[in-house]
Amino acid sequence: MSTVTLSNIAKAYPNGYQAVHKLNLDIQDGEMVVLVGPSGCGKSTLLRMIAGLEEITSGELTIDGSIVNHLEPGERDIAMVFQNYALYPHMTIYNNMAYGLRNRKTPKAEIHRLVTEAAEMLELSELLERKPKELSGGQKQRVAMGRAIVREPKVFLFDEPLSNLDAKLRVQMRLQIKKLQRRLGTTSIYVTHDQVEAMTLADKLVVLNKGNVEQVGRPIEIYDRPASVFVATFIGSPSMNIFDANIISQGVKLGNLLYKFNTQYLKIGGVKLGIRPEHLQVTKTNPWFEVEVELIEALGADLLVYCRTTGEHSQNLVVRVDGHSQFKLGDVIGLTTKLEHLHLFDATTSKRIHIENNVQPITEAIYA
Amino acid sequence: MSSPVIFKNRYLPYALIAPQLLITIVFFILPAGQAIFQSAQLEDAFGLSREFVGLENFINLFNDSYYLESFFTTLKFSVSVAVLALVCALILSAFAEHIVRGATFYRTFLIWPYAVAPVVAGSLWLFLFDPSIGVVTDMLEWFGINWNPTLNGDHAMWMVIITSTWKQISYNFLFFLAALQSVPKSLHEAAAIDGSGPIKRFITISFPLISPTSFFLLVINFVYAFFDTFAVIHAMTQGGPGNSTSTLVYKVYNDGFIGLDLGSSAAQSVILMVLVALLTVFQFKYVEKKVAY
């Protein structure tokens, strides 16, 4: 049960590469925080700094109110689950889980109780006398979790723990991790590049890009109100469509097609306009703009329609529609959307321009 | 899984293994056969006459206190060399892993002794250990040790042990270094998080994981100490003083080519051959199986 605070944490490598820039983050007791970002965004480095496997160049890391910057990994009272499991191959499963407890001079009977309990919780009781190489990927992953659980640490760290598993197992393990974390109530930090894992596991989602925090928030907040173009395109699949558009006094103009709304509080000029594929509706009456179908991907439940706007300066986009919709390549279809589904970003800084609270929407879109 | 290759020409496979076979026959089977033949003969020193004596050469050997003593000398020598060379190399390689600056320099210099010819190594250390001009002798005098390997058998023994060990450390170092580097880094990290310090990690994680390499090196080092140290001993002590550094291999040479007792020398070679065969069997039986995980 504990809190973790990162204040102005930075990591620079001797060759001058700045992996993490001054980063601040508060993690509450019992919270599941997911760090997500593309490879090279510094999420693993950050986790390894919290674990004590990488030195912290500057800033302060506190666990439960005390600074742990200079403590050895073993003294920080944390446990980590590695991507490749990192089970000790020469030890039995029992000894793998007991290793950390023995190092802490836990009494033998206590070790036995803790390991047996964790094994039961993770359905590993039958496997305790086996060696890691005799286990399947999913079982190894459970042992790695067991090794973390038995120590009853203040914080769990997960470093992409599911990326070595096949898709079906990944979903199972994801649910298991979620249940386990709820049940134990241990503060957890989870690193992943998989946005589905990120969305489903997180109490608090932290989107990282190039060593900076792009946005922190509940997953649904981040989905609904992405703070930048980067977050908008990173969270959500397929990615949000981003267009070059213009704000004029009557509304927003895509090419020469106007979507009318009250823009009196917005700056006139070029913006980036974002619309999620699932928020575009196909309409025959009064569409905002027309597109030509270029490619169709059928996912069963949904159909992803890749299209291109007609007219000059045509732009690519994806529309997500019901799986049984009938389209042919080359069809020209009309699209529209609701005002609340428009995301505006600054053309130069790519940061979100907030429109939700300060405009009076004109509910009907007009094809001008 | 590799499937057996089928040759179209039935003579081709024989032609392909012929070179290796020829080498084995010329340099092993023939001399070994000759040794076995010779070991049952008694020949005069001039090679003018010989007679068949059956196992008499062997019986004489096992009644010869010098031969039994040589067995003991060899054992003392081999165990010392193997243990010292393995322990030193293991320690050096454990440190080599953590060196950040000058790692290449450090490794190159550690591997260098392996490239020094045994006779050269022998002469080098002979100078260092020389009773009158040796640097090591001088240093030992500070500790009140009157070092003289030409008179003191124990001193002579230490001298050949140290020289042979020095030459073998490089080889062991290379293997240990490779083995240690193949232990995944994440295991060390996991152990560190599990509250294990660097020394404990080495003992509980690295060491068990490199045990196949250690076992292989143990056998190799014994073979080295048994058979490959002839040149060092020959260059430094010629088996002396007395018979204090006369190992089994050195005695084969000494009895055969200096003493010209060819029958006894041959019998000793045959015994050594059996020993090598046993070591090899041991190696195959255990090393292959002894993979701990």
Automatic annotation (TrEMBL), chain A:
The keyword Acetylation does not apply. It comes from Psychromonas marina. Signal peptide: none annotated. This is Sn-glycerol-3-phosphate import ATP-binding protein UgpC 3. GO terms for molecular function: ATP binding. Keywords: ATP-binding, Cell inner membrane, Cell membrane, Membrane, Nucleotide-binding, Sugar transport, Translocase, Transport. Transmembrane segments: none annotated. The lineage of its organism: Bacteria, Pseudomonadati, Pseudomonadota, Gammaproteobacteria, Alteromonadales. InterPro entries: AAA+_ATPase, ABC_transporter-like_ATP-bd, ABC_transporter-like_CS, ABC_transpr_MalK-like, ABC_transpr_MalK/UgpC-like, Mo/tungstate-bd_C_term_dom, NA-bd_OB-fold, P-loop_NTPase. It holds the Pfam family ABC_tran. Residues 4-235 form the ABC transporter domain. The keyword Ligase does not apply. SUPFAM superfamilies: MOP-like (SSF50331), P-loop containing nucleoside triphosphate hydrolases (SSF52540).
From TrEMBL, chain B:
The keyword Nucleotide-binding does not apply. InterPro entries: MetI-like, MetI-like_sf, UgpAE/MalFG_permease. Keywords: Cell inner membrane, Cell membrane, Membrane, Transmembrane, Transmembrane helix, Transport. It is a multi-pass membrane protein. Residues 71-283 form the ABC transmembrane type-1 domain. The chain crosses the membrane at residues 12-37, 77-96, 108-129, 156-180, 201-227, 266-287. The keyword Zinc-finger does not apply. It holds the Pfam family BPD_transp_1. It is found in: Cell inner membrane; Cell membrane. Signal peptide: none annotated. PROSITE patterns: ABC_TM1. The complex is composed of two ATP-binding proteins (UgpC), two transmembrane proteins (UgpA and UgpE) and a solute-binding protein (UgpB). Belongs to the binding-protein-dependent transport system permease family. UgpAE subfamily. This is sn-glycerol-3-phosphate transport system permease protein UgpA. It comes from Psychromonas marina. The gene is ugpA.
